[in-house]
Automatic annotation (TrEMBL):
Protein name per Swiss-Prot or TrEMBL: Amine oxidase domain-containing protein
Recorded GO CC terms: mitochondrial inner membrane
Naturally occurring in which organism (per UniProt): Fonticula alba (Slime mold)
Coiled coil residues, start to end: none
Organism domain of life: Eukaryota
Xref: InterPro entries: Amino_oxidase (IPR002937), FAD/NAD-bd_sf (IPR036188), Zeta_carotene_desat/Oxidored (IPR050464)
Region Disordered: start-end pairs: 9-32
Residue span(s) of domain Amine oxidase: 41-619
Amino acid sequence: MLLTPGLAAPLTAPTQARSDQAGPPGSPAPQHVAILGGGAAGVSTAYFLRTRYPEAVDSGRLHIHLLEPSPSLGGNIRSLATDIPCSGRTFGPQTLRLASPQSLLVLGLVDELGLAGHAMTTRQASLSSGMVLGGEPLLMSARGLNRRFADDLLGLNLGSLGTGLAAIARAALEPVIPGRGAAAAGQAPEDDETIDEFARRRLGRLMAAGPMSAMAHGVYAGDSRQLSMRSCFGQLVRIEQHHGRLLGAGLVPFSVSDRHTVHERLPGLVASLLDGGPGVGLREDFRSPVQAYLSRTPAALVDPVDLAAISLLGQFPLFTGAPLKGVPWTRKRSPFTGEDPTELALSVLRVGPKRVLSLRPDRANDRAPGPSDEAAIPPAVHGNQALVDRMAHILKGSPNVHIHLGTGPLSVDRPGPGGPKYRVSAGSAVSVPADHLVCAAPAGSLADTLAPALPGLAGALAAVGATNAKVTVVSLLARGREPFSRTDTLGYLWPAGEQEDSILGVVLNSDIFSEHTPSNVFQATVMLGGHMPPPEDPVASSLHRVRQLTGLDLADPRLELDLAQWTGAIPQYTRGHHHRLVDLAGRAAGERVHFVGSAFTGVAVPQVLTSAFMAARGIAAELGLHEGLLAGVDGQAGLGYHLRPWDTFAELAAVTP
Ligand SMILES: Cc1cc2nc3c(=O)[nH]c(=O)nc-3n(C[C@H](O)[C@H](O)[C@H](O)COP(=O)(O)OP(=O)(O)OC[C@H]3O[C@@H](n4cnc5c(N)ncnc54)[C@H](O)[C@@H]3O)c2cc1C
């Protein structure tokens, strides 16, 4: 391992030329993978390559170079421990949603990184999200709506009552609004609707301006009138395409009372695996939890491609046997605990999918903060950042993995005949050969980095990365002498029409994980800015908004405040994003360049990890490390899997023995 400590410190020798690193005589020439960007996407691509193809890395056939211009790994994932049990400060992802089968990948990772004991998941009761409408908090549940109607009625607030009833009446017509068929999937650029257009057409103007605008704020910090429905909430688009409507078509859970219903809704491959076959089937201990999981999962949230691909490729041991020819089946054990990574998954499967997960930090004063460099000691856990810290810990202890931190701006060129395909450099200090590139950084920034080697990609990358949302995060923590009262909600979002101070939303951290948080501690995280102007006084706005939601006046000395400002943190998938990706993938075809992470195909951490997993798989296929049976999954330019998920599933099914 070569750790280049940063520009300010003296640099260790540049990475040696590839000829110095050849394996034993007769062995294939070593291959070098350069990963540009050390956020969750880059670190996990390196980790999946390292842990899923250990022989190739250990033998020196595969060298992994992880290059990060800033002095630390993690990108947008940043969290700190506090001296209060279970209470960290989280400036990036607050919670990881466990609603999609991609969460199996997250759970597998959490477990194999030895973090299962730190996993906090929500109680079923605390699932409701809220929204601020008409200046008042509204819980998006039957109870919350009833309460609002009752309040409006008793307060003779007839305008608000009428608006609420009109919104629900219009949304109830949704099943009879004709679907757009193939056009719904946005195959042609002109068919790509914004979130607002899609929501107006299907659910009506009031739902578009309220919940859908709030959702765009909550996930993308973006403007629902600019963002592409297909790229941001593609599952709903696919449901309309296949069923002609949303309500009653995939937004209801599977029924396990009739197994045929499950089978009809799950495409053939997964259904046949549920039944088992010669030497193939669900592990016995998973059979009933998986059935229960499916019975509680709205079909809209089950992406069979993810379930099949992730499970079958051995990431997560749902199945016995080797379901696909040539795909090795290995049961992973945690490198930290040596345990079979099933217990956490079983517990989550038992409770159901509508949950979120967050990593409980160690207490700051129990252990020195910061990842440990000592190979034997796993780094302290300070919240969700531990996912990256633990993967980095494994990478740092690994031969033939080279981590270059604090490189400053990177540049990729082509060294010419006889040399490697690419060379990645930063001034005269870093010079790394690369046969394969993984681009795990914001697209706009990559346009400059790749321009010398791949000028044809620069324009396409600049177009993909044209818009990013800045987010201001205010973390509030108060300790009281008395217990704080709790609400039953994850937090509240503000739609665009409710704006005064560029507020996006408030996450009520201590309420989400109330059973883990001391009762005299209140914690909330406020997000502001996004596509709106930067907030003038984010702290004052945050205190005001928390008071509006909870009645708590936190402007007293018990309060601890932290503020983080992310510039360009959340890529904006505006109308036409999918077609810009297709253009990029076409230009990159055959160049051994993979694009992973939030800049391209999904901003939530589970999606980022999935793209990294698939890129590692694609590189392994290019290297001939497996038979490459799954052409669609192995991807074209690292994007194929994400661009064509339903076709990919058909290919998966076709190769099933
Ligand atoms: C405030 C906030 C709240 C969020 N909340 C949630 C949540 O609750 N749940 C959830 O699932 N997700 C959430 N997310 C999203 C999630 O954090 C990100 O999608 C994820 O961390 C992105 O990882 P990444 O590696 O793709 O990108 P990044 O984290 O952006 O990492 C990219 C890395 O590339 C480096 N880099 C930049 N330019 C170059 C270059 N030219 N060459 C090489 N390297 C370069 C950067 O320094 C950085 O380290 C949130 C994000 C933010 C900002």
